[in-house]
Amino acid sequence: MNNKIPPPIITLICGLGIYFSRPLFPKYNYISTDIIAASFLLLGIITLITAVLSFRRQSTTVNPLQPEKASSLVVSGIFKYSRNPMYLGMLLILISMTIKFNFVGGILIIFAFIAFITKFQIIPEETVLERLFGKEFIRYKKKTRRWI
Fold this sequence. Notes:
Shape: elongated
Number of helices: 4
Distance between the termini: 23 Å
Largest sheet: none
Helix content: 55-70%
Order of helices and strands: HHHH
Radius of gyration: 16 Å
Number of strands: 0
Structural class: mainly alpha
C-alpha cells in the first residue's frame, strides 16, 4: 500500500481544511444550506455505518491499511451500488461541511480528497483484492462503480 495514513485521518484533515480556510473564500449562507448540509451529513453517516456493518456481517477486515487480510469479498447490500461506500460516506460528510462552512474552498478540498483517496487508497486496494479474489473481483469491478 502506498498510503500509510488511515482514510479517516485524511477525512479529518480535509474537514479541518474546509473549516479553517473559510476566511480565504467568499461566504455563501442561505436558509436552506443548514438543511442540505444536515442531509448530506446524515447520508454520509448512514453510508459509513451500513458499509462497516456489511464487513462485520461477513467477518472480514475493515482496516483500509491492510486489505490483504480480507477474508471475503463483500458485494451485497450497499456494496451493490458502490465498491467504496466507506470512502463515499466520508466524501458525503465533507460535502456536508462544504455546504455549511466553505463552499468554494470545500470544493477544492473535495477534489483533492477524491484524487488522493483514489490514487493512494482505492487503486492499491483494488490491486490487492484482484490478487486475492481474482475473477470474482474482476466481475464485481465491471458491474459496480468505484464511487457511485
